[in-house]
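Anyone? Bumping this.
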Amino acid sequence: MGVIDRKEREKVEMKRQILDAARSLFLEQGFEKTSIRNIAEVIEYSAGTIYLYFKDKNEILFALHVESFSVLMQAMQAGIMGETDPFERLISLGKHYLKYAFENPELYDLMFVMTAPMETLECREEIWCDGERAFETLKFVVSDCMKAGYFKDAENETISVMVWSLVHGLATLHLRRRTMIFPETKRIKLLEDAYVQFIEILKTYKK
Amino acid sequence: MGVIDRKEREKVEMKRQILDAARSLFLEQGFEKTSIRNIAEVIEYSAGTIYLYFKDKNEILFALHVESFSVLMQAMQAGIMGETDPFERLISLGKHYLKYAFENPELYDLMFVMTAPMETLECREEIWCDGERAFETLKFVVSDCMKAGYFKDAENETISVMVWSLVHGLATLHLRRRTMIFPETKRIKLLEDAYVQFIEILKTYKK
DNA sequence: TGCTTTTCTGAACACCGTTCATTTTATTTG
DNA sequence: CAAATAAAATGAACGGTGTTCAGAAAAGCA
């Protein structure tokens, strides 16, 4: 029967509609202020229908989180491919990561700050594969840097966590409004400078 | 009239009761799951009464945020006073900051991650003084390090933002469950190693 | 066409933050 | 002390939330 195939397609299509509506509402008015009823209204279905396609609101967040990772991964890959020198690759990787965070604040939040998507994973007893893949990419680049003599003989994973923490820290301090203490016009510059400075210091730590 | 003095004391006392109840509920079951009605129940008043002492829920969060900063500032001061060498002070400052974050995850969240307290400030058109004071402390220590020849001739503020971002990144990646990708037994060690490694790299960046 | 299965709805539930008329309590005045 | 006034506390109500589920509507099959 081609019917069940079509039904399957329709189910996927409906999930798409829900996610598209959810994403657009989230980006427009934030997560907190977006309700299931809002999403239902946009796709012109009743609120109850949403629950035939997603277990709960967290599962919608989680699905968007997965989507967003594929975009970030592309950006990161672009960052790597644009350079040949290992250390330049690391610099570019970080820049692309930060660029993604600043250009997609709500999505970055979903991927690396909100606890809701992690709760979905935990109750499914699954692993955070998307995060792991992104981190593996970083480790890969760090590994090449080490082969080129950078980072003396530190542990790859230690260096990678350090780099990740730094860029994540820069991103979240800003996205969660803690750069309020700096003049508005200088905030971005200060964060960029801090990143450049960090890279500069890293560069000098060679064998 | 001694009456209005007493009334004033009673008002302060009531605010204390509310904040104590709120803090204990928050630490116990998180912010999201604590309602005004919950708080009211603990102090054995009706929910409406809370609003005679605090404008809204955000203002309660903000008050706790202020409280928490005074504890963090003490911890940071202790970190500085425990050492005499400028660079050792910086190391200790960071350690105490991280210790506070890991020992008081909910409060750290309130101080540096949640947007609610910042919104209270923004609609009051005030400055985030508490954050500023903490950052000034860091800048002070960095300044002493620079006088001792560290950080070549980088900008104090740039270095300070970098250090803050790194420790904040370490803290939030963990508190918001993004260290799930590492084996549970090694998470803390990895974060500590990353901090030590960062310090080690910083140390070598001298004039 | 009638029967079954799938899909969808919308009312209901138990919450939430917040407001406000009303009642209770405390203070001041005659 | 009693009456009048002022302050504090209540609890119902409002409009919202996520979520569930009996019953209605639509689709697929005989």
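Late reply, but here is one note on the structure posted above: Chain A has a mean pLDDT of 96.
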